[in-house]
Design goal:
Blueprint lengths: L4 E4 L11 E10 L2 E2 L5 H17 L4 E4 L8 E2 L2 H8 L7 E4 L2 E2 L5 H14 L4 E6 L4 H7 L6 H16 L4 E5 L2 E6 L13 E4 L3 H9 L3 E3 L6 H17 L9 E8 L3 H20 L9 H7 L1 E4 L1 H15 L3 E5 L7 H16 L2
Parallel strand pairs: 2-4, 2-15, 4-6, 6-8, 7-8, 8-11, 11-12, 13-14, 13-15
Antiparallel strand pairs: 1-2, 3-5, 9-10
């Protein structure tokens, strides 16, 4: 078994004092192709990245979820099903699936099926997203997205437990509804809920979901956010023993100069595309470099992960290693560097 990065919490966080934290490393898969790129070629590259990540002991593969993008975007549920036979042990999931856009009964069954197909390796990360265009296309009121999230998550959990559910909501009406095909994982796959602000973070805790921390925020911001999350868990009398995943943009190289140069080269185009999306504003290159990304050698990145472990109690860091314009060979080299020098360290 491959040893993951391991550090001991040194009492600096009141919730994790004296507890050993094993930090796993996952991969966020950039499952989209530019309009000029060949879809079949891109799919073969994604499979190669996943296979290499599993070879090196990465803990998980997460897929994003959007509609009506300016790229060729592989829809995550279909892509996950395609990836399952190309893997044996790595966990597969979403970071995040846009839950309020879909019927929760349908998704409860789809996710239960996916968890069965992958023999209990599914992670269900959910969220609301932030693009009003997507909600308009599905006929779902944008201002109901949080209400529906709060309604759907408990319903899906009850169905996964095999309960007989009678309910009437925005999704429709259920009379003693029950799933016969339950998830492979008892009680259902791990539920991670993505959120940025204090209200969303408290919502994740109240719904008894792990908070999937997004790839933004400096150290002080992260400290404040995790304090909010754990205080909310405590106030809801919920266990602190759970996954604490954190997403981060990562540029890794053999020397810090090359890593910084690559970050400056790829970052501008990546976030220029984001700025064209709804509600994504005020993203300066300097802010992204300082708050969104881990940039440098594996030793430098290791030091950052150590801080996340000791100060925040992170259990898994999900790295996006492919940015817009990056050649496939560079992505494989990044996976190789992380695998050889961090995961197998």
């Amino acid at each position: 078994m491959i040893n993951q990065l391991t550090w001991c919490v040194k009492g600096s966080h009141k919730y994790e004092c004296g507890r050993q934290i094993v930090v796993k490393i996952g991969l966020f898969l950039s499952a989209q192709a530019a309009q000029h790129e060949d879809s079949d070629t891109k799919l073969r590259e994604l499979v190669e990245q996943v296979r290499m990540a599993e070879h090196f002991g990465f803990s998980s593969i997460l897929l994003g979820h959007h509609y009506l993008t300016k790229s060729k975007f592989f829809q995550p549920l279909s892509l996950l099903s395609y990836l399952i036979p190309h893997t044996d042990k790595i966990r597969l999931g979403f970071g995040v699936y846009l839950l309020p856009l879909h019927n929760p009964v349908a998704l409860a069954e789809e996710f239960a099926t996916a968890d069965t197909l992958c023999s209990g390796r599914l992670i269900v990360g959910v969220g609301t997203g932030y693009r009003e265009k997507e909600y308009s296309a599905f006929g779902v009121p944008f201002n109901e997205r949080f209400k529906r999230l709060e309604e759907y998550v408990p319903l899906i959990k009850r169905l996964w437990l095999g309960e007989s559910v009678t309910a009437d909501g925005t999704f429709g009406k259920l009379e003693s509804a029950k799933l016969n095909l339950l998830p492979n994982q008892k009680g259902g796959p791990p539920l991670w809920l993505g959120a940025f602000g204090p209200v969303g973070i408290r919502r994740a805790a109240a719904l008894d979901a792990s908070w999937l921390a997004p790839p933004d925020g400096d150290r002080q911001t992260l400290l404040e956010r995790y304090e909010i999350y754990r205080e909310a868990l405590n106030s809801n009398n919920l266990s602190m023993e759970r996954d604490y995943p954190l997403m981060r943009e990562v540029i890794v190289a053999n020397d810090s100069g090359t890593a910084t140069k690559n970050a400056q080269r790829y970052l501008a185009e990546q976030y220029r595309g984001y700025k064209s999306w709804d509600s994504v504003k005020d993203l300066s290159e300097e802010k992204i470099l300082q708050e969104f990304a881990l940039i440098g050698t594996t030793d430098m990145i290791s030091e950052q992960i150590s801080w996340y472990s000791e100060k925040l109690g992170i259990t898994e860091i999900i790295m996006r290693l492919q940015w817009t314009g990056m050649d496939h060979s560079e992505v494989l080299e990044s996976i190789n560097l992380i695998g050889e020098r961090l995961i197998k360290k």
